[in-house]
Design a protein that fits this description.
The structure is a single chain. With 26 residues, the protein is mainly α. Helices cover 92% and strands 0% of the residues. It has 1 helix and no strands. The radius of gyration is 11 Å and the shape is rod-shaped. It starts with a helix and ends with a helix.
């Protein structure tokens, strides 16, 4: 369960970073 939670957090953080990069490019 902890592994799944960590993966979700990593995916969420990656999504935020990716979204921020798109905003910076635009």
């Amino acid at each position: 369960e902890k592994l799944k939670g960590n993966v979700l957090i990593i995916k969420y953080a990656f999504a935020l970073t990716y979204h921020n990069d798109i905003l910076l490019i635009i």
